Amino acid sequence: MEMKNRLLKSLVLGMVVMGLAWACQPPDELPIIPKISYNRVEFFDQATGSDSLILYINFEDGDGDIGLRGSEENYPYNKYNFVIDSSNPRKFVFIGGNNYTPPFYSAFDENFNRLPQQTLFSETDIRKPYNCEQYEEVEYYPSQTATTTKIDTFLVARNPNNQNIFVDFYRKVNGNYVFLDWANVFSSNGCGGNFNARFPIFDTDNLGKSLSGTLRYSMLSAGFGIVLKKDTFKLKVYIKDRALHDSNVIETPDLTLDNITLN
Hints:
The chain is mostly beta strands. It has 2 domains: 2-68 and 163-260, Immunoglobulin-like; 80-159, no CATH class. Helix content is 6%, strand content 34%. The protein is built from 3 helices and 12 strands, in the order αββββββββββαββα. It has a 5-stranded antiparallel β-sheet with strand order 5-4-3-7-6, with no helix packed on it. Strands 9-8-11-12 form a 4-stranded antiparallel β-sheet, with no helix packed on it. A 3-stranded antiparallel β-sheet has the order 1-2-10. A hairpin with a 2-residue loop joins β8 (165-173) and β9. The longest helix has 8 residues, at 2-9.
């Protein structure tokens, strides 16, 4: 199991951004909602270590507000939100116990700051046994006067705005495409991760100006050859800008590792 965990942890994430070009046209010449188009996919089969699946997409954005700094972890780009129950505005929900009153709400960010507006997480108690999608193990001070920390496993709501490129894999099975859930390929508790990630700000000086170019995203995994083998697969991809606008969703053509291997 330990070897499998190391393998699934290597699924993600290597990112390289290069080959970018920007155009300093007035922002109204392009829409402020980002638009992307497919360029190509390449595969590098490494003799040792992780293989590389490299996605190239073309993009354009009318106000150039795309990219996130690695240090941006506060709202609205935080990783997850803590969940409370409806009986107390500061009653956090943990993995164990049955003294909770649904519905549950997403109410605090990962730094225990109250969100501008709490949102419904679930109408009922949907907690499952430990899994990496629902839970986060957190070390924290249980009160403002506490001098020692505790470690608990909190129920959390993952925040999709923490990332800005989203990649789903689909494998062809009996002529139909089926979603490939990397989080559970080598794991029984959804801890395998996925290929959603961040790309950085391309040109800080030109934020607010039209931007276009090509994004090169390198996904690293020791599992590509094991999982995809000779199968036909495709990717669905979209990006998100800093104002949280989603781009259009693109699909790659049918792919096989053999057909896109460069070495």
